[in-house]
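Predict the holo structure. Ligand: nicotinamide-adenine-dinucleotide.
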Amino acid sequence: HLESAPRGSRLKGKVCIITGVGSLKGIGRASALLFAHEGAQHLYLIDFDETNLPNLKSTIEGKYPDVKVTALQADASDEAAIVGVCKQALQEEGRLDVFFANAGIATALPIDSVTPEAFMNTLRINTLSCFLAVKYGSAAMAKTNPSRGKEYSGGSIILTASVAGIRSGAGSVDYSASKAAVNSLAQVAPNQLTKTDIRVNSVCPGLIETGMTSNTFDYARARGTAGKLGQLNPMGRYAVPEEIANVALFLASDDSSYVNGQNWAVDGGLTSTL
Ligand code: NAD
């Protein structure tokens, strides 16, 4: 839909970090394109798989020449990498306005097959990455509007959780636990980031066709049952990544300037039925 939609300005002047942008069908890529469409000043785009980063960078730069893009191959759960990108944004742009911590992995194992190592790995990638975004993103944001004083800075941190973190859902116990912890982070962080305009929220997608779920969709298509994948949802369908990106855009923009500490289910009403 971005092909025909007029350019917007909801992120004009904003410096944004987005993690987990490397999947061609993912939420991160859809969000990067939407943030560029809405006039973001500089996008720092991170994925630990570098395969599709050059394509994303050239696609954005080709279509939106006014948007600066820095694509970085890095692990979103690596402290030094996150400290580094926050520092780079401050050095190059003097500000950080948005940190969309979206990188994550899905797991699907029965509980007796989840080793302690596997459990901790899921928590590292899905949860620690969000903690680092809150910790170092907020510190960078606190330096963003020096004229207002350190205590009254602004910015938006958005964490991708899941409906699996609200109620029991698809995937393994480690996945659900990691996403519940992300929701908790979004709820408690505002209590520490007091007297600032730095906001923290999570988005909790339901089932979406992305790189992460492609096996599920391919399997169902091969059996002619893909249509059934959305049937448990009150809306009778699953989502597309752009529907999550739209909510991330709202949370990133000043339209949500008094929205803080909330877990935003973007699930077609699924959790309302549980
Ligand atoms: P995706 O697999 O298409 O994209 C995820 C991207 O994150 C990939 O490019 C991957 O390389 C990257 N990534 C993974 N771990 C990383 C790390 N440690 N550092 C840097 N990059 C990393 O999947 P998606 O569905 O777009 O996933 C985005 C987020 O949405 C994830 O947090 C996922 O848990 C969440 N989510 C997805 C669904 C769904 O149905 N697809 C539902 C609920 C929540």
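Residues 19-20, 22-23, 25-28, 46-49, 75-77, 102-106, 125, 129, 160, 162, 205, 207-208, 210-213 surround nicotinamide-adenine-dinucleotide (CB under 6 Å). The CA atoms of residues 77 and 124 lie 6 Å apart.
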